[in-house]
Amino acid sequence: MQGPLWFRILAAEAEKPVTDPTLVAALALSVLTLLSFGLLGFLWRLLPLIAILYTTFWIATPGAATIGMRCTGLTVRRVDGGDPSPLQALLFAALFYALVAVTGWIIMLLPLVTTQHRAAHDYLSGLLVTRGDRLTVF
Q1: What is the mean pLDDT of residues 54-63?
Q2: Does the global pTM surpass 0.85?
Q3: What is the percent of the chain where pLDDT is above 70?
Q4: With the CA atoms of 96, 18, 82 and 72 taken in that order, what torsion angle do they form, in degrees rounded to the nearest 10?
Q5: Alpha-carbon torsion (111, 115, 120, 121), positive or negative
Q6: pLDDT band at 59 (very low <50, low <70, confident <90, very high)
Q7: How far apart are CA 55 and CA 64, in angstroms?
Q8: Which of 19, 52, 105, 118 has the fewest Cβ atoms within 10 angstroms?
Q9: How far is CA 100 from CA 5, 77, 85, in A?
Q10: Can you give 12-68 as a three-state secondary structure string?
């Protein structure tokens, strides 16, 4: 398979130890909820924001890639080749997590059948994931 598709899968796996702070936050929230007798239970609604903000932060930085993407040599670019804006990075991350939550990862089969091997959140945010400095659309 051509392009960064397999590298995206590897990047997602490499990201797991880094994104596991969400698990740590969940454990901390469990303790806080118990100690507050449920008064701080509303904080659970904020937990998904950790992953969205993490992804947005790293894609909006000059390297334009999360830590897992950097490990596998991937970078995120606008379709015209420029760096993604913070708003595009936020849209990219929010769409990814929302689409995965709604479809249960089935949406990630889209790159296997499209000619450019891009995911739905790539198309909708106007971004593409490339290997290194390659700016070609696969």
Answers
A1: 92
A2: no
A3: 87
A4: -100
A5: positive
A6: very high
A7: 10
A8: 105
A9: 17, 21, 23
A10: HHHHHHHHCHHHHHHHHHHHHHHHCCCCCHHHHHHHHHHHHHHHHHHHHCCCCCCHH
- Which residue, 10, 30, 117, 118, is CA-closest to 72? 10
pLDDT tens sequence across 89-135: 999 999 998 998 899 888 888 988 988 889 999 999 999 998 875 54
Give CA–CA dist 96/105, Å, rounded: 10
Task: Give the residue-averaged pLDDT of 15-38.
Answer: 82
Rounded distance between C-alpha atoms, residue 46 and residue 72, angstroms: 30
User: Contact 73/132 with Cβ under 8 angstroms?
Assistant: yes
Q: How far apart are CA 87 and CA 99, in angstroms?
A: 18
Residue type, 13: E
| Residue 49: closest CA among 27, 76, 67, 22 | 22
Contacts of 8 (CB under 8 A, 6+ apart): 69, 72, 74, 111, 129
